[in-house]
Design brief:
The structure is a single chain. By secondary structure, the protein is of the alpha/beta class. It folds into two domains: 146 residues, TPP-binding domain (Rossmann fold), CATH 3.40.50.1220; 83 residues, SIR2/SIRT2 'Small Domain' (2-Layer Sandwich), CATH 3.30.1600.10. The protein contains ten helices and nine strands. The chain has a six-stranded parallel β-sheet with strand order 3-2-1-7-8-9, with helices on both faces. Strands 5-4-6 form a three-stranded antiparallel β-sheet. Strand 4 and strand 5 form a beta hairpin. The two termini are 19 Å apart.
């Protein structure tokens, strides 16, 4: 069975108004990764880190899915298990677009996790202050986001997809965290969609250098051709 891995990063949600880390004026200019996205930073100033993620949830509440999110949701609904949807993003915009079975490789912003028993619960866009564990009633709750210095359990799903899928569609990621350029060797066909040209373009069979919103109909067409048997290898992409 032909299968397609759609792997997305911050560029997928940028058009929805979510601030990204690496863009001009982005979050990295306001915050240090060591301060808010690492284990040492969390141990040093827990309140600062939790406040940072409270702000991210509050921002997310005011954002809406864009055409690229809806396109992925439509493909997943139509082709089912032939489409594997994985994202580095921690937002819920794919889910709000109607996409089921999304694997969030780095965690999920609407969720918090109990540090006492490990229970995960969804608080939507509410602040974490005052939340207690539904299971053990502990007040020691944290964001359910993978920080630098922690293991990402869903990477096992990513490695499985690299082995099972034949087409790779990579949307809105620089390749700084995940080696998406190296992943291309696992696939018969690879498509990249980033807003700007980058060092990783040469590793992909096809590149759309534009926003995920304007490119969505193009990579949707590529996926349909592949799954419907109209494209063989990368000759007809």
């Amino acid at each position: 069975m032909k299968k397609v891995l759609i792997l997305s990063g911050a560029g997928l949600s940028a058009a929805s108004g979510l601030r990204t880390f690496r863009e001009s004026g982005g979050l990295w200019e306001q915050y240090s990764v060591a301060e808010v996205c690492s284990v040492p930073g969390f141990l040093k100033d827990r309140a600062k880190v939790l406040k940072f993620y409270d702000e991210r949830r509050a921002q997310l509440a005011g954002c809406e899915p864009n055409l690229a999110h809806y396109t992925i949701a439509k493909l997943k609904k139509e082709f089912g298990e032939k489409i594997v949807v994985q994202t580095q993003n921690v937002d819920d915009l794919l889910e709000r677009a109607g996409c089921e079975g999304v694997i969030h490789l780095h965690g999920f912003l609407p969720e918090i996790r109990c540090e006492a028993c490990g229970h995960v619960q969804n608080i939507g866009y509410a602040p974490i202050n005052g939340q207690i564990c539904e299971k053990c009633k502990s007040p020691k709750m944290r964001h359910n986001i993978v920080m630098f210095g922690e293991q990402a359990p869903h990477y096992a799903d990513l490695y499985e997809a690299l082995q099972e899928c034949e087409m790779f569609v990579c949307i809105g990621t620089s390749g700084e965290v995940l080696d998406v350029a190296g992943y291309t060797r696992y696939f018969k066909i690879s498509v990249l969609n980033n807003l700007d040209a980058s060092r990783i373009d040469k590793f992909f069979d096809k590149c759309y250098t534009e926003s995920a919103v304007t490119a969505a109909p193009k990579w949707e067409s590529d996926i349909r051709k592949f799954l419907q048997g109209e494209a063989h290898e990368n000759d007809n992409l």
